[in-house]
């Protein structure tokens, strides 16, 4: 057995708890594609994973919370921005599994309206019964999680810490599985897959997709559109969980280190969570042509990136089928009502 076959077997044997509606569909965006000469655009609907309106973190939580249960954890602790999709899915999964949940929420997006802190993901977090602790933007997420964990341990509880975005090696492996799932779907469609574009924030989703590409020997390109960090930092965030996941599967580290990580950091705008004009145009375009909801933090910026790359002929003439990986998050639209009336759009 070669290392690829062994790694795929190891991936399949990882314990998981069922939380999502998987496999998620792949849809052809036909009306959008008619506007684009030479390309067919597809979407991987991980906004349809089912848990608490869906999203990409549900896949990661199937692996991470199986580990939490195996370790007899009683309470889950994680962190994110106030309108974090990740913490919303953690809160929902914890409720479903009968686990306590503490959320450290960071005020990292300036100049929001009064809606931002009470609707969308925040409202759902409260409904799921999570304990919510709010911190100013200068707080260190890892330090805050460690402090909360120490406090819970002192109270005699057994906490399980999940990093921002679930982006560690185990979380990334969920997206290695997801990549193999998508590849099988394209085989069933009898269509080649040439490139994938996906939002890149905490890095774990891109890391897992890259691992899946390594395991399958797929020759295409995966482009992460950064929503928060400039290129160098964004690549670091991807490489860390990629290496951790590879070690778990006994994938040769030299193979991983030789794999290029493509990050496009041109669509962040002023900062994380602040919509750009290109982002809002992409949201409105997909809503009006395909009835598909994107969000102003992740997928709107990533779709803006995909459309720009197409305009620039980045993918070349041999590439025809482009897959946009929808990571969910449309619940956050409720925290940004002002984007509907942007005069410049």
Keywords:
4-stranded parallel sheet, alpha/beta, globular, Rossmann fold, 43% helix, 2 domains, 345 residues, single chain, 6-stranded mixed sheet
Give the arrangement of secondary structure elements.
Blueprint: H1 3-12, E1 26-28, H2 30-33, E2 40-45, H3 57-70, E3 75-81, H4 85-97, E4 100-107, H5 121-127, E5 131-136, H6 141-154, E6 159-161, H7 169-189, E7 195-200, H8 204-216, E8 221-226, H9 231-249, H10 253-257, E9 262-264, H11 277-290, H12 299-311, E10 321-326
Parallel strand pairs: 2-10, 3-4, 3-6, 4-5, 7-8, 7-10, 8-9
Antiparallel strand pairs: 1-2
Question: What's the mean pLDDT score?
Answer: 95
What is the CATH T-level topology of the largest domain?
Answer: Rossmann fold
Number of helices: 12
Give the end-to-end Cα distance, rounded to a whole number of Å.
55 Å
* CATH class category label of the largest domain: Alpha Beta
**Number of beta strands:** 10
Number of domains: 2
Largest sheet at a glance?
Answer: 6 strands, mixed
Radius of gyration: 19 Å
Chain oligomer state: single chain
């Amino acid at each position: 057995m070669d290392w690829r076959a062994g790694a795929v077997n190891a991936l399949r044997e990882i314990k998981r708890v069922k939380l999502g509606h998987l496999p998620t569909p792949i849809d052809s965006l036909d009306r959008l594609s008619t506007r684009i000469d030479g390309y067919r655009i597809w979407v991987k609907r991980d906004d349809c994973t089912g848990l608490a309106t869906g999203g990409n973190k549900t896949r990661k939580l199937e692996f991470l919370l199986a580990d939490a249960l195996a370790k007899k954890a009683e309470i889950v602790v994680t962190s994110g921005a106030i309108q974090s999709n990740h913490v919303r899915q953690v809160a929902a999964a914890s409720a479903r599994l009968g686990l306590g949940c503490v959320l450290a929420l960071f005020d990292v997006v300036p100049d929001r309206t009064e809606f931002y802190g009470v609707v969308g993901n925040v409202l759902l977090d409260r409904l799921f019964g999570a304990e919510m602790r709010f911190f100013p933007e200068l707080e260190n997420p890892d330090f805050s999680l460690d402090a909360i964990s120490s406090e819970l341990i002192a109270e005699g509880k057994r906490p399980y810490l999940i990093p921002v975005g679930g982006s560690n090696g185990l979380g990334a492996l969920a997206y290695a599985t997801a990549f193999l799932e998508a590849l099988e779907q394209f085989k069933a469609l009898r269509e080649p897959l040439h490139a994938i574009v996906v939002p890149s924030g905490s890095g774990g989703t891109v890391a897992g997709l890259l691992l899946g590409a390594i395991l399958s020997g797929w020759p295409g390109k995966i482009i992460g559109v950064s929503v928060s960090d400039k290129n160098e930092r964004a690549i670091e965030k991807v490489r860390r969980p990629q290496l951790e996941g590879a070690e778990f599967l006994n994938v040769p580290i030299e193979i991983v280190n030789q794999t290029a990580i493509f990050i496009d950091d041109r669509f962040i705008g002023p900062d994380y969570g602040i919509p750009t004009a290109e982002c809002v145009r992409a949201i409105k375009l997909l809503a009006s042509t395909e009835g598909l909801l994107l969000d102003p933090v992740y997928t709107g910026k990533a779709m803006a990136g995909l459309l720009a790359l197409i305009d620039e002929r980045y993918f070349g003439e041999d590439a025809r089928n482009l897959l946009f990986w929808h990571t969910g998050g449309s619940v956050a639209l409720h925290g940004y009502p002002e984007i509907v009336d942007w005069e410049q759009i």
